[in-house]
Automatic annotation (TrEMBL):
Leader peptide range in chain numbering: none
Protein name, as recorded: 2Fe-2S iron-sulfur cluster-binding protein
Keywords: Iron, Metal-binding, Oxidoreductase
2Fe-2S ferredoxin-type domain mapped to chain residues: 1-75
InterPro entries in alphabetical order: 2Fe-2S-bd, 2Fe-2S-bd_dom_sf, 2Fe-2S_ferredoxin-like_sf, 2Fe-2S_ferredoxin-type, 2Fe2S_fd_BS, Aldehyde_Oxdr_Iron-Sulfur, Beta-grasp_dom_sf
Pfam families found in the cross-reference section: Fer2 (PF00111), Fer2_2 (PF01799)
Length: 168
């Protein structure tokens, strides 16, 4: 059994109890993905699984045989940040930075959800494939990622800029 992590084939641990988070941090030494609450409440461990956001602390590594995992280290390219990473820097979307990898991974997936027309709890028109991306819509979609420092204004500004640039 193997999974792809940031484009590299990785053997799934023999122990079926190993969480995806522990595989990433302890087995692969990818420390960008953070262990916050380890209960799925804070979003610090958010990674992308086949492009969709997933809480790695609540997921067992064996669940992902044949699938593709992208961590914060897998976004962008060497010497070139992903547009959302760059926007977080430019808009001070972080303070201590602990939640930032999960926030960015979640935002990357959220942007794709909006592009695909996936509704959220606050989407007003469920029959439309076009999401009116309001302030409330963004806050609802990012509500699973907490920031203890309260850098939400910078996070929202970074996401808004990236969405605006993607629409152009």
């Amino acid at each position: 059994m193997s999974i792809s992590v940031n484009g590299n084939a990785v053997q799934v641990p023999d122990d079926p109890r190993v969480s995806l988070l522990d595989l990433l941090r302890d087995g692969l030494h990818l420390h960008g993905t953070k262990k916050g609450c380890n209960q799925g409440a804070c979003g610090a461990c958010t990674v992308l699984v086949d492009g969709e956001r997933m809480l790695s602390c609540l997921s067992l590594a064996v669940q992902f045989d044949g699938r593709s995992i992208t961590t914060i280290e897998g976004l962008g390219e060497p010497g070139a940040l992903h547009p959302l990473q760059q926007a977080f820097v430019e808009h001070d979307g972080f303070q201590c930075g602990y939640c930032t990898p999960g926030q960015i991974c979640s935002a990357v997936a959220m942007v794709e959800e909006v592009r695909r027309g996936v509704p959220s709890h606050v989407t007003s028109d469920l029959n439309s494939n076009v999401i009116d991306f309001s302030h409330d819509e963004m806050r609802e979609r990012m509500s699973g990622n907490l920031c203890r420092c309260g850098a939400y204004n910078g996070i929202i500004d970074a996401i808004n800029e990236t969405l605006k640039e993607a629409a152009e």
